[in-house]
Amino acid sequence: MRPILLQGHTRSLTQIKYNREGDLLFSVSKDQVVNVWYSHNGERLGTYNGHVGAIWTVDVNSTSTLLLTGSADNTAKLWEVQTGKCLHTWEFKTAVKRVAFSEDDAMALAVTEQRMGYPGTIVILSIKNDLEAEQSDEPINIVYPKGSKAMAAEWGYLNKYIITGHEDGSVAQYDWKAGDQIKSVKAHNAEITDLQMSEDRTYFITASKDKSAQIFESNTLNHLKKYMTDAPLNSAAITPIQDFVILGGGQDAMQVTTTTMRQGKFECRFYHKILEDVEVGRVKGHFGPINTIAVHPDGKSFSSGGEDGYVRVHHFDEDYFKFKYPELH
Amino acid sequence: MPGFDNARQFPQSIEDIDFSDIEEKYKVPFEEGFDTIIVVDNAPTVDESKKDKLLKFIRKIFKNAGNIKDIDMPMDLDPETETLTSKGFLFIEFETPEQAAMAIKQYDGYSMDKTHHLAVNRFTDIEKYSQIEEEYKEPEEEKFVEKEHLRSWLTDPQARDQVVLYRGEDVSIFWNQKTEPPEEVHKRINWTETYVQWSPLGTYLATFHRQGIALWGGPSWNKIIRFVHSGVKLIDFSPNEKYLVTWSNEPITLGPNGGAGTPFGPEDEGRQIIIWDVHGGNLLRSFPSSTLSSDGTPNKITWPMFKWSSSDKYFARVTQGQQGQQGQQVLSVYETPSMGLVGNKSIKIEGLVDFEWAPASDKEKEKDKHSGEKKQREELLSYWTPEIGNQPARVTLLNIPSKEIVRTRNLVNVTDCKMHWQSNGDFLCVKVGRHTKTKKSTFSNLEIFRVREKDIPVEVIEVKDVVIAFAWEPKGERFAIITTSDPNYGQPTQGGVTLKTNVSFYYLEKPKPDKETLEKKSSNAIYWSPQGRHVILATLRSSTIFDLEFWDLDFETTLDQKEFAKTDPAACLQLMSTQEHYGVTDVEWDPTGRYVITSSSFWRHSIENGYILWDFKGTQLQKHLLDKFKQLLWRPRPKSLLTSEQKKAIKKNLREYSKKFDDDDDWVKLKLSKGQFEHRRRLMEEWNAWRRRVEKELSEERENAGVASPSKRDDDTIEVIEEWIEEVVEETEEIIDD
């Protein structure tokens, strides 16, 4: 099906996210605006205005009432989804690169940048899901990652731990209460750019600049799968229904102007999740690197946000759902 | 203050003192070498009266060799005549060992008169030979080490071909396996420092190193031999792999110990080209790099610098004459294994620009094999000279070693000539770049020499446009050319403008010479299959077009066409496939003409480096994108041992053979798909087992924690609410009169 092109940002996309039902799509960009769209037709519902720096990250709670964003203006903001009202602002010393609600929505983590003498941290915030309640400024805990700074982070199921992906390519498990590292494995040879959980949070996928994406088991950090591509990756997502993963990336934005579109490899690549080396297909369209990919929770569509400032919403064709590996079924 | 407490330890007498260190220090150095002294034997025996006369004569002879310090001729008292007589030998001392060596070289065997032939030897030699033990001791026999079978790769039951792949720092050798991934034979990291090269028959793989060249081969891929040549950049094998030519941009230096431990002697110093014996690893001869050109600047290196004749018997190069003047070019033809000039002198050819050896026909090759060293056939070479003064430009065919001119042809208005021999040596095509009288525009002539026919008739094909590429069909009677009349030709193009070109195929035989032209192409390179018949037209070095066209020149669909083809060969010209390989830089046919590999090398650009394997029809079999892919070369094969009758018989029974091969293919496919199927099935099972375990653990943990799974989606609970909203946009009331 023809993709829907969402033209609501004036600068490159940094993250996109569906809510739990998948009817809404939130997108954040370096142009300091948060947009929310109807995912089925691409109509824009509205914007959340207030950040004064590039917005790096967004997350929505499971009941689609609260939206959390992190920005280069050194703040994280909590918004009321329905009205666009800013409910609370947390101030930090450096930019907020990643936010994520916990499974039960009672907490959120915020990954702050290491800059100007301040170490990179992972701040655990307490969130009250009552829209009228006053949010607490005081974090529950601050985790100081060991060694290389964290680039991405996610919660484990039942809030058992948090999983972090680091600049040196390692993946680690942290006890967010004590602030200690539980486990760490050297997964990639270059920085990790994205980390997304499976539906039940028992495994997760990492994307890296080393041109590969990998799947790990959350509890043990055991390596399960690896997908090799020929371009640096910025994002990776796991699809429900079909056993696929979607990888996106492309040549560094800095070099794009000097090369042809074809060489940039700005495509979403589909790999078979279990067979690893089987590339199922590609979706072209962006004319810059793909920065972020999100899959609709029902697995019937996915979206990609690019350096070119566009979000492309793709609904899968009938063929996609019928696809089966003949020899395996 | 030193005391005398230990006085007891002092030596008792002078004998007890150890002076050896002092003696060592002040030892008078005796002249140890007798290198400056020579012994002259077979001199006339004379008595006292003639002694001075003889010595004077000797002195006169030997003073040419150097300054004589002293001559001593022992005289004995003859008991019979009671006079002092010389004994027929004398000693001469020179100032330096070099002069002594010179005297030996020049005057050993010198005839003073009819009966007296001087024997001149080093004085030290006499001592050396007198010390030889009387008893003969048998030299220890070296243990025979069996060499590996250097052509083992040809015994592959499926007759697969090997390729060498150079990527990043890794060099690996693979079997080509059609559609299946290539099978690795051998791999080494940092095997070479610059690039790799096969020998022409595929026996050796040459790798380049700072210190020299190494040749590898055999089933174990061990080092076979090493050639020391510091800074070597270019190499060239003789056609039958007997000799190797190496070139380094650094002149040979002997170092402080006069080249000890290296294969170089004093005469090699300062030279840049070395010819080696591949089997023994010996240095055969070194040459200086080509001499300065007429204006005194160093010549550009053209490679191969020496061109080899097809039998390995001769090699030759063009050099400027000794005066280094215009028109003093000489063709130096050397002979193997003596490494001397044929007929002891170079051939002076005024204005000589370039020459080419004629390849040998199969028959001649066969003969070479059997005749061995006994009888040498004449070998043919062609050369051309430009217009000088009133003399027209000229192409000449010359026989070696007789130096007999077989055929000459005069040409006018020539700007450039390129000589192309057909691979059997049957035809020579000279591509003549010509200019109009005003010298404003250029066009090309093709002069075809039919070498095997009597008197060597020449045909001229006039081409109005500029010929940018020419290629003979291997062993065939056809050739292809690419011409262009594009105004951009020859201009310094920006951004790689792709020229519009025409491609023409020429048929020299059956039944009359004919041609077929394909117009409006962009192709600029011709790649014939080594077996002939199939040809690839490629567009290289363009930034926008990367076309590959696979053509068949003997395409037969119906019998009618076959009949028709007898009168019009062009009817069988068929485009089989047009493909594109983005960023293609090189095209390589495998030696059997079954497959072709197009590659995109990191050396030219970094766009989509890697290679694609096609079959001869242009069907893509495999594609590999490899970072830092540099070089890929098929391993050449030696000439087939089958006779042409045997080949014909195989062609006739091709149907039976192909059935067997089809069966083989099917079997391999079955095996593979089964293997792959098993592998994938296992992966699926492992994953599913793991999921079951993890899901069970998860649900247990959730139960213990008393938290239901939040991500559980239940499609039944999704409620679709449809709202109908009616809006009245406009309402007008009109009263219509009855």
From TrEMBL, chain A:
Subcellular location, record wording: Cytoplasm
Keyword entries, A-Z: Cytoplasm, Initiation factor, Protein biosynthesis, Repeat, WD repeat
One function term, GO molecular function aspect: RNA binding
Biological process according to GO: formation of cytoplasmic translation initiation complex
Coiled coil: none
Chief location category: cytoplasm
Keyword Acetylation applies: no
Pfam families assigned: EIF3I
Taxonomy, superkingdom: Eukaryota
Cross-referenced Gene3D superfamilies: YVTN repeat-like/Quinoprotein amine dehydrogenase (2.130.10.10)
GO CC terms in record: eukaryotic 43S preinitiation complex; eukaryotic 48S preinitiation complex; eukaryotic translation initiation factor 3 complex, eIF3m
Keyword Repeat: yes
Residue windows of the WD repeats: 6-47, 48-89, 185-226, 283-313
UniProt record similarity statement: Belongs to the eIF-3 subunit I family.
Subunit and partners: Component of the eukaryotic translation initiation factor 3 (eIF-3) complex.
Function: Component of the eukaryotic translation initiation factor 3 (eIF-3) complex, which is involved in protein synthesis of a specialized repertoire of mRNAs and, together with other initiation factors, stimulates binding of mRNA and methionyl-tRNAi to the 40S ribosome. The eIF-3 complex specifically targets and initiates translation of a subset of mRNAs involved in cell proliferation.
UniProt-recorded name of the protein: Eukaryotic translation initiation factor 3 subunit I
TrEMBL record, chain B:
InterPro entries in the cross-refs: EIF3B, eIF3B_RRM, Nucleotide-bd_a/b_plait_sf, RBD_domain_sf, RRM_dom, TIF_beta_prop-like, WD40/YVTN_repeat-like_dom_sf, WD40_repeat_dom_sf
UniProt keywords, alphabetically: Cytoplasm, Initiation factor, Protein biosynthesis, RNA-binding
Endpoints of the signal sequence: none
Family annotation (SMART domains): RRM
Cellular compartments annotated: Cytoplasm
Superkingdom of the source species: Eukaryota
One Pfam family hit: eIF2A
UniProt feature coiled coil, ranges: none
Principal subcellular localization: cytoplasm
All copies of domain RRM, residue ranges: 36-125
Subunit-level organization: Component of the eukaryotic translation initiation factor 3 (eIF-3) complex.
Function: Component of the eukaryotic translation initiation factor 3 (eIF-3) complex, which is involved in protein synthesis and, together with other initiation factors, stimulates binding of mRNA and methionyl-tRNAi to the 40S ribosome.
Family of this protein: Belongs to the eIF-3 subunit B family.
Protein name: Eukaryotic translation initiation factor 3 subunit B
Species of origin: Gigaspora margarita
